[in-house]
Amino acid sequence: MNSVRCLLMGSAAGLMAVSAAQAADLPVKAAPVEYVKVCNIYGAGFWYVPGTDTCMKIGTWVRAEFYYGGEGDGGVAMGSSSQTSAGRFTRTDTSFATIQSRALVTVDARTQTEYGTLRSYMDVGARLYGDARWPNAPLSGGNTTTAEGSINTSYNNNNVDASRAFIQFAGFTAGRIRSLYDINAPGAYTLSNNRTVADTADPGIFSLAYTAQFGGGISFSLAIEDPGATSVRARLTTDMSQFNWGGANLGAGQSLDNSGANFWDPVVNLRIDQSWGYAAISGAMQNDGGGYYNNAIGSTNTNFANTTAQGHPGDVYGWAGSAGFLLTDFLGLKGDTFAMQGNYGHGATAFVTKASGTWFNYGGSGKIGYGTSLDGVFANGTGISQSTEWAAWAAYEHFWTPRLHTAIQGGLVGITYDQDAKNLMCAGAPGFTANPHQSLGFSLAGSNIISGNCNPNYGWYQVGTRTIWNPHPDLDIGLEVLYTGLETANRGATIQATAASGGLPPGQYTFGNTGAWTGAFRIQRNFLP
User: Fold this and answer.
1) How far is CA 239 from CA 11, 234, 348, 360, in A?
2) 246 neighbors 439 (Cβ within 8 angstroms)
3) How confident is the model over 150-193, as pLDDT tens digits?
4) CATH numbers and ranges of domains, the chain
5) pTM across the whole model
6) Contacts of 71 (CB under 8 A, 6+ apart)
7) How far apart are CA 324 and CA 271, in angstroms?
8) What average pLDDT does the segment 23-33 reach?
9) Collapsed DSSP state (helix, strand, coil) of residue 448
10) How far apart are CA 529 and CA 518, in angstroms?
């Protein structure tokens, strides 16, 4: 009997074990799928990242641009910086037909916190040129645009085109942003690269900023910004006893002798935003300090040139201010806008205008225009003499229909130097003798002055019109015509060149006002940019 009982109990236990094992092999019911949900807090395109309370948007835009009389990056084909040879307008010096393509992907992530919205934003892409902008020579500054399909390697970190990468939290913004000094964005009214008032909307600049909101649309921002930006907001101080004014061959770009970046540029902005538009005023400072003296007066040992043994000019600081506004639905016309802005500065060229650097233009019939924008100049044993800059700009855009709109925009720029700066730039600095052909503010190989006084003051202006058609809300097709005029205070001064400069032959050249026409065509697809 006991044997039977044990057998039954063992069989039951075995059956239970087999049943449990079989149950373990049965399919488990899947957890409910968590579908992506739309986030309506921040506008179109945002969605909740599954498993989080973060809203994200991914966007993109792709652009193709064609220029005639314009550089591949949208600038005017008027010699600029170290590329002044383009301004000769000869078959071998200038590419009149250029093209570029750009593409960016944007990522915007936002999370609500007890301190407000935590946001991170970035864009990344590429900018490619389809043709050499200046033939027959590699470009300086790291450019390799000398072959079909090559990539510009000097814009925004080599091959990468990245203009924004920042974090916002509790009123603070840190990273690469549009400068808080900027007010209006002229790029909204033009296809070409605006060269009038200063604006960092396209490339961006590194900054740490705080913005306080006071209600009623009034805000105040305080920021420190990158003092060492060479392509966006360059500091332009040069030692006239060390570097030739204008360089060789019809004015290569000026050589700079700045001190190291040892002073963050402070920026302030007071702004009001209303239903009618906005208005703002802003201010900024920068350090215009120079390097060491090239060779102290009285010294015969040049081994000590540009060392701590020679000393340096005392630091000076440049400053700039800006005021501007934008009116929406101007004159009661739906979508129309009207904007104006004025900038003024002392030793802060790149805060006032994007026309910083060297500019040259051959106007035909032996006429040449030239100008260089510097923050300050010095020489052995002297202090730094600073320039004065001003710029004014205005634009109006009219919507003929919701899908067809035309903008008209234009601006003026002026750069002046005091007498001390003129003496250094024109007559040769103390401690060295300037070559005669450099006294007019540029160099033409083997040239000699015939007549005229040196005056490095100059100005220039732009005026243009752009029309965009939107056959689809996400598609822009635009056409622009732009004229740029270069004016020089050296008008009437002449030189005799005894050697050729690029495609320009030897002969007599006269300073005068010159200009250039630019045409641009753009097609761009936008998707949640």
Assistant:
1) 103, 16, 17, 21
2) no
3) 333 444 434 678 889 999 999 999 999 999 999 999 999 999 88
4) 34-527 (2.40.160.10)
5) 0.84
6) 77, 80, 83, 86, 98, 133, 193
7) 10
8) 52
9) strand
10) 28
